[in-house]
Amino acid sequence: MNTAGNQRAEEAFVRFDKVQKSYDGEILVVKDLNLDIPKGEFLTMLGPSGSGKTTSLMMLAGFEPATHGDIYLGGESINNVPPNKRGIGMVFQNYALFPHMTVAENLAFPLKVRKMGAAEIETKVQRALDMVELGAMGGRRPAQLSGGQQQRVAVARALVFDPSLILMDEPLGALDKQLREQMQYEIKHIHENLGVTVVYVTHDQSEALTMSDRIAVFNDGVIQQLSTPDDLYERPQNSFVAQFIGENNRLHGKVSGVSGDECKVELDGGGEVVAKTVNNIASVGERTTLSLRPERVEIEPEKGQTDNTVTGEIKELIYLGDHIRTRMEVAGNDEFIVKVPNSAGNKPLAEGAQVKVGWKAEDCRALDPMAV
Amino acid sequence: MKLTKLLASTAIGAAIAFGATVASAKDLTVVSWGGAYTKSQVEAYHKPYIAKTGVNIKSEDYNGGIAEIKAQVEAGNVTWDIVDVELSDAIRACDEGLLETIDASALPAGADGTPAKEDFIAGTLYDCAVANIVWTTIFAYDKSKMPNGPKTMADFFDTAKFPGKRGLRKNPKVNLEFALIADGVAAKDVYGVLATPEGVDRAFKKLDTIKGDVVWWEAGAQPPQMLADGEVAMTTAYNGRIFNAVAGEGKPFEIVWDGHVWDLDLWVIPKGAKNKDTALDFLKFSTATEQLAKQASYISYGPARKSSAPLVGKYHNKDIDMGPQMPTDPANLTNAVQNNFEFWADNADQLTERFNAWVAK
Amino acid sequence: MSDAAIGMNQSANNGTSGEPLIAADGIPLKQKLAKTTRRMKVQAFLLTVPLVLFLIVAFVLPIGQMLYRSVHNDTGSKVMPNFAVSIQEWDGQGLPSEEIFEVFVKDMASAKKNREVGKTIGNLATRVNYEIPGARSLFTKSARKAGKVTEGPYKEALFAIDNRWDNPHIWLTLQRVTKDFTAAFYLAATDRKYDEKGNMVRADELYQIYIPILWKTIWLSALITALCFIIAYPVAYLLSTLPLRTSNLLMILVLLPFWTSLLVRTSAWIAMLQTEGIINNVFVYLGFIGNENRIQMIYNMTGTVIAMVHILLPFMILPLYSVMKTIPPTYMRAARSMGASGTYSFVKVYFPQTVPGIAAGTLLVFILAIGYYITPALVGGNDGLLISNLIADHIKKTLNWSLGAALGTILLVVVLIFYWLYNKLVGVDNLKFG
Q1: Which chain A residue is nearest to residue C333, measuring alpha carbons?
Q2: pLDDT bracket for residue B77 (50, 70, 90)
Q3: Which is it for strands A42-46 and A214-219: parallel, antiparallel or unpaired?
Q4: Domains of chain B
Q5: Who is most buried in B157, B193, C52, C338, counting CB within 10 A?
Q6: Is the CB of residue A25 less than 8 Å from the CB of residue A45?
């Protein structure tokens, strides 16, 4: 279903092969999932709730059986391996720290299960605590820690038994914004330092962009696109991805001409623009939705600098320090956003003014049509 | 200090509120044992009395004992006007000052003109109590299951000859007497033997022989039910309960009269009863010759007056002669014991402890 | 932010300089604070007043009265006020003096005439009979004749009425009985008594009832608690994991016993369990057992245990359920993900978190079981006699309230000891009743 996941390398560490999942026998929550994750990768499953991302993670962890298909770990099918035999570390949404144990006992739990010696356990626990900078907190109960500290303990616990694969299920969801951003970096650094494979589930696209090597965007039980963060942002493969990742201006229209990887589009709101054709839009007469990032639009561009120029009306100006967020009406879309950098020589803007806006053809992607 | 005052005034307020609901002077609260027994009293005493005087009778049930009487008298709020009690309870309540005294000479003479004091069977009139009926504890069996049933008290204790469970009341009273009779003690000597430590040991030793087969009962309604369910092969019971199961429900039960221990039910008036005078009037009315005889046509308990005996006829709705069903019938008294209230007043505390210890062992 | 910080600095300075903090209107800050919070405190107190009053009237006073009654019995001094004073002068050697006999006979004669509740000779007779079986008739009979004795020597006159008076035992007992405070009821409640010389001794083995029954009650309650726990734990687990609609339906089944009267439930068990009952009939019909070998399931320990477990089960399930409901399934998943087997995860992770519910449930069931008596009396047969039956007997039948109170106090102490033990083991803060 997607061609971006094309490197079906034999050395794939985790592999979903034609995996399907249904809870009630009527609706498929996961439809034909094929996904290869090489060793050491930080892969994020991103999507709205109900898109199948968490179910996929739970199948990998072993808490939900796949209805159809196989899941491989290190080349072996793990369909019939119970969760405790899979050797996968996991961080849960609400951390799932055992409230009746101290932090150190929580960390020692997976080691005791593995029947390690007391001295070895102590060393490893201390090392894991130091890694998350909680060296002195070993004797406390989880309830005595702050949210951020609990989160770190959860990460440390998932890592302490040296699993080669870590699963994280929205681990930062319960933290406030500032702490969440800080933890994103910390987790990323831990991943870089240890070289473990991480499969991370979130519905927060900025979190996904910040942390991941690759992102699998889920919707409706299907991976919509599997790419690196910049690829995903710069080159969304369909309207859903363009809409879900980052801010996006949409213009609806009809293809009126095709030449090479560019096409002409007649906008519903009047005017004709040139856009870059993306895989599934081909023939003249087809409807399409154009996707255009706000920061790629220029106001009053110099002649010849942009491939497309249209006139719009400024509806609202919001001062945001580094840039001015400008809401305009362009070609019938009155939610057209332009980010105007707050740099020296810029002309002052006024609400209600008619201005020209322009953009390059390569920044405007003609994607599958979305409902107007 | 303030708190106690507040509490006291609250309590008084509550007492007044409750007091207001107490029955008016035209009402009479009569308390008895419920079931078929109360029904016989309603038919023989209450209905004729209401017809004669217009007094409104409120009938209440209880399970015996003097705890409620004591509580009411001590609280100074006596709502029971006249109560049907067992002899030992009547004596004790009287001794402890819980009852009004009753002048026996004020009771009406018998229908044949005999003065009350002579008409009542000896030992049925007391300082505070007037007997109405004689009841007894017998044992009974289901003759449809045991055609050649037991004849004597010894048979009751003979589980080799008559296998099966035995129903006994969970109380030392009567059981110890039965055990001695079964062990060969003559009815008239039972309390003499029981007064000695050896006699008590002998009774418990006899009870030991059937302990493993005993099913205990506590309420009078249980024994006929246990017999009907086949839970026991034979059981001790109040004779009226067995008779009613036979006459009323057609059960194939047979009473064995050998060695039965008879006792009295008596009317008493709690001290400070609200309607003391009406209660006394009702007492005189209900223990008259005619009323006692009439009660005997509803239940097989013997009238306490000699003059009632000739008037006892048939069961109220069936062709059954009530005479032979009476504990006081001469044929039933050949080997019978009268419950010795004095013995039990002296020894109940101690023997109950021993009995409980024996049961639990 | 910074303003507040400055303000705080100033306050700190004020504090260190030793001057009290002053509010804007010049009243010391502490006074001001106390004033504003007093109103809330008064309000909070007023809200609890009905409960406090209720507890005092329905709980504290009765328990206080029970404790008092168990050691205080003034029958002797009320019935024979003069004798109660003079007998205390006796040194306990031989028999009391002629003067004391005179007081006794006169007190007895006036007590005989007294019909006041609690002051009759019958009251004293009952009281002495607790300690000397047979004393009851000695008192009631002698009292009838005491009025005729008008002149000395009173000692001989009394012996003439009944020679049992010529026994130091009775006078030693009377000396004790006429004191208002006594340990006699605690002695009786622990199967002890005063012997003829006034020494405390254990009662004859044949008469030892209270201590064996108390042990049996504790043991049986523990057994019932354990069985309730074994049955309730899986049920509560199921209830906490099922979807709401199904679990609500099951919960109704669990609570059903609450909505049926105790006697109806008990009678139903009799109908089920008796030898000619439903279960035995089914067994015989199916050929599991012969008609001759019907199983005795009632009127013995089995019947008591079955019926009591059924009645008390909800009290175990509810606290367990409420605790289990709060344990998210991710804990078990987390444990499994770390390599623990299902059993290990359950034992080390799930079970410890249910301890508050277990503690509350077992404590609740144990305390309720230890006080139950109607059900055991009806279905327990020889084994149905528990300590509460004896207490009820003394309160309702024998009217020996002092002994009942002493037994009740002992039972209360036993429960408190268990509560204390529990507190030591799991901590009261860890109890979660629902």
Answers
A1: A63
A2: very high
A3: parallel
A4: 24-134+264-332 (3.40.190.10), 137-262+335-360 (3.40.190.10)
A5: C338
A6: no
Nearest to C133 among B96, B211, B347 (CB): B347
Pull the structure tokens for residue A226.
Answer: 């599997």
C210-430: which CATH architecture?
Answer: Orthogonal Bundle (1.10)
Q: Give residue-wise pLDDT tens across range A219-259.
A: 999 999 999 999 999 889 888 999 899 888 988 888 888 87
Indicate contact of C with B: 3+ CB pairs under 8 A. yes
- Which chain C residues contact residue A90 at CB under 8 A? 333-334, 337-338
Residue with the two structure tokens 């009268």: B338
Q: Hey, are the CB atoms on C337 and A109 less than 8 Å from each other? A: no
- In 10 A of CB C56, how many CB atoms? 14
Verify whether the Cβ–Cβ distance B356 to C117 is below 8 Å: no
CA dist A189 to A210, A221, A229, Å? Answer: 12, 31, 17
Contact by Cβ (8 Å): C112, C147: yes
Rounded CA-CA distance C98/B52 in Å is 60
What single DSSP character describes residue A139?
Answer: T
- Nearest C-alpha neighbor of A131 from the set A79, A76, A194, A175: A194
C contacts of B97 (beta carbons < 8 Å): 114-120, 122-123
Interchain contact B314–C (C-beta under 8 A): no
Mean pLDDT of B170-189: 95
**Residue A198 amino acid letter:** V
Q: Do C336 and A62 touch (CB under 8 A)?
A: yes
Cβ proximity of A182 and A152 under 8 Å: no
> Which tokens is B223 given?
């024994």
Which residue does chain C place closest to A85, by CA atoms? C339
Residue located via tokens 């079955």: C306
How do beta strands B27-32 and B82-86 pair?
parallel
Least CB-CB distance to C377: which of B214, B218, B347?
Answer: B218
Tokens coding C110: 């006036």
- Alpha carbon C278 to its chain's center: 36
Q: Which run of H or of E encompasses C207?
A: none
State the best of B99, B216, B232 to mutate against chain C, taking most chain C CBs within 10 Å.
B216
Residue pLDDT, tens place only, C198-249: 899 999 999 999 999 999 999 999 999 999 999 999 999 999 998 888 988 9
Q: What average pLDDT does the segment B77-83 reach? A: 95
CA-based nearest distance C332→chain A, Å? 9
| CA pair distance B152, B258, nearest whole angstrom | 5
Going by pLDDT thresholds of 50, 70 and 90, the confidence category of residue C19 is low
Three-state SS for B306? helix
Enumerate the residues of chain B whose CB falls inside 8 A of the CB of residue C213.
356, 360
User: What pLDDT, on the 0 to 100 scale, is given for residue A141?
Assistant: 93
Cα–Cα distance measured from residue A146 to residue A289, given in angstroms and rounded to the nearest whole number: 46
CA distance to partner chain C, nearest, from residue A208 (Å): 23
**Among B12, B63, B92, B96, the residue to mutate for chain C (most C Cβ within 10 A):** B96
Partner residues linked to A28 by β-bridges: A22
Cα dihedral sign for A186, A192, A198, A199?
Answer: positive
Q: Show the domains of chain A with their CATH numbers.
A: 14-239 (3.40.50.300), 247-367 (2.40.50.100)
Smallest CA–CA distance from C334 into chain A, residue: A96
Interface pTM (ipTM) of the complex?
Answer: 0.83
Q: Which amino acid is at B180?
A: L
The residue ranges of every structural domain in chain C are 2-71, 75-182, 210-430
Q: Give backbone dihedrals phi and psi of B262, rounded to 5 degrees, phi first.
A: -95, 155
C292 in contact with B, Cβ within 8 Å: no
Q: How far is C118 from chain B (nearest CA, A)?
A: 6
CA distances from A64 to A45, A87, A165, A176, A202 (A): 17, 16, 18, 30, 19
